[in-house]
Recover the amino acids of this structure.
């Protein structure tokens, strides 16, 4: 007889493992199925985020930033550093250790919360008495039955038509994190999060980096003023970013990769690189789920169709994270995972897409929450804007990093904060104050009247709030 569970979660990434743990905390008998493997074939839960995404990329960004500081910025502090070298193999090994620590941490949390873990690929077999039968294809095949099913299978990197990933010359985010030596020339297609972060890593280590972007504007989803400020910083660093290009034929050979393209003026160009990273977005992962066996509805993009509560068209079946609509962000998946577990328990799970923060972990970091100035204009919303440069912030001067600004947008009549946009040091941490403020419907005046530590980077947020009403404490 198949093992019976109250809740079965298919996928152990940020949405899946969080959903499983929260469901177990709420008293359910829970199973989580995940197929990720480490280099020894053992379980590696955590999904793309932990294994080939958020976590390893941040480890490489940190290592490469240390290297650049030692070579270019220590002297400003009176520190002499000569003969500084990067051991790429050791950097990659440290990244792998960080990943394993996170994998092991998730397995520990499963054990602590009494979540039954199954290592393998989960797929639907049929609707069964009391729920659904799920097959687990792992070292040994077995079937389990769950009353409630949560699908959290994530997404896969989108390849260019006719140019599949070989992870040696043409790289997805996976291959980009396993490059064994600094390429002399590195090409990237796509100037989104992955392109900018990976381009920054290898540029700091000495690669000549060229990013080809099809859109005519840089970071089109980002507030225009912030995007322009970031572009200036990246240009100064030596990242070559070409906008409005049309990529043509891509050839691979013993010498690397050759990319034919036309630039924004329509002129034919060629780019020869040692390696090419393709970061043109991701696609929902429903491979092997056997959705047709139970009639689970998918949309035209291949994503699982859900309503506002993450319910699918099937009773007792839910889906969260990258495999459904909405931003493909780990923390969005986590919020949905918690909310679904609580909804199954009869509670009122909460997810507010308007207060989901976005972060690009380059240097300078870029972070934002809410609407951009361009979106407010397009929607006809009357607003007030205020900004404050880190150049005038004492803590930023002491850090030696005064690039960027904080920008705040508020409703012209109610003063409610509608968006906060940051480019500069530690933007990923600073944005959280804005998220909390917006979740509780704060006004810009509320932020302006809150006492911020001095000196701190967060004072720039307060000054931006003051600037909304044309006030300032610094000038």
């Amino acid at each position: 007889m198949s093992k019976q569970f109250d809740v079965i979660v298919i996928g152990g990434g940020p949405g899946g493992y969080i959903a499983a743990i929260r469901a177990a905390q709420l008293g359910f008998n829970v199973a989580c199925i995940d197929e990720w493997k480490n280099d020894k074939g053992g379980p590696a839960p955590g999904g793309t985020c932990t294994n080939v995404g958020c976590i390893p990329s941040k480890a490489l960004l940190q290592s490469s930033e240390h290297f650049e500081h030692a070579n270019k910025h220590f002297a400003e502090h009176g520190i002499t550093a000569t003969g500084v070298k990067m051991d790429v193999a050791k950097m990659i090994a440290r990244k792998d250790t960080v990943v394993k620590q996170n994998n092991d941490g998730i397995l520990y949390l499963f054990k602590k919360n009494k979540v039954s873990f199954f290592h393998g690929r989960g797929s639907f077999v049929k609707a069964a008495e009391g729920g659904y039968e799920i097959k687990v294809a792992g070292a040994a095949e077995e079937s389990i039955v769950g009353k409630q099913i949560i699908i959290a299978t994530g997404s896969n990197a989108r390849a260019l038509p006719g140019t599949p990933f070989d992870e040696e010359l043409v790289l997805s985010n996976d291959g980009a994190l396993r490059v064994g030596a600094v390429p002399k020339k590195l090409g990237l297609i796509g100037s989104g999060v992955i392109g900018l972060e990976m381009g920054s890593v290898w540029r700091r280590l000495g690669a000549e980096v060229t990013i080809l972007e099809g859109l005519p504007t840089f970071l089109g989803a980002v507030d225009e003023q912030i995007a322009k400020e970031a572009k200036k910083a990246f240009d100064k660093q030596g990242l070559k970013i070409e906008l409005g290009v049309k990529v043509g034929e891509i050839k691979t050979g013993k010498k690397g990769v050759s990319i034919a393209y036309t630039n924004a003026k329509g002129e034919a160009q060629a780019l020869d690189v040692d390696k090419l990273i393709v970061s043109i977005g991701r696609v929902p992962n429903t491979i092997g789920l056997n959705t047709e066996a139970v009639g689970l509805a998918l949309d035209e993009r291949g994503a699982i169709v859900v309503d506002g509560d993450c319910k699918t068209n099937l009773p007792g079946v839910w889906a969260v994270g990258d495999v459904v609509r909405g931003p493909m962000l780990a923390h969005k998946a986590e919020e949905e995972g918690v909310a679904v577990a609580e909804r199954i328990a009869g509670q009122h799970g909460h997810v507010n897409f308007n207060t989901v923060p976005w972060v690009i972990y380059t240097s300078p970091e870029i972070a934002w929450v809410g609407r951009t100035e361009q979106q407010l204009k397009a929607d006809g919303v009357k607003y007030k804007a205020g900004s404050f440069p880190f150049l005038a912030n004492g803590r930023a001067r002491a850090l030696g990093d005064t690039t960027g600004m904080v920008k705040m947008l508020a409703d012209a009549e109610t003063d409610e904060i509608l968006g906060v946009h940051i480019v500069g040091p530690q933007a990923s941490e600073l944005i959280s104050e804005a998220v909390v403020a917006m979740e509780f419907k704060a006004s810009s005046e509320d932020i302006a009247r809150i006492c911020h530590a001095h000196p701190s980077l967060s004072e720039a947020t307060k000054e931006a709030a003051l600037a909304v009403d044309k006030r300032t404490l610094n000038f």
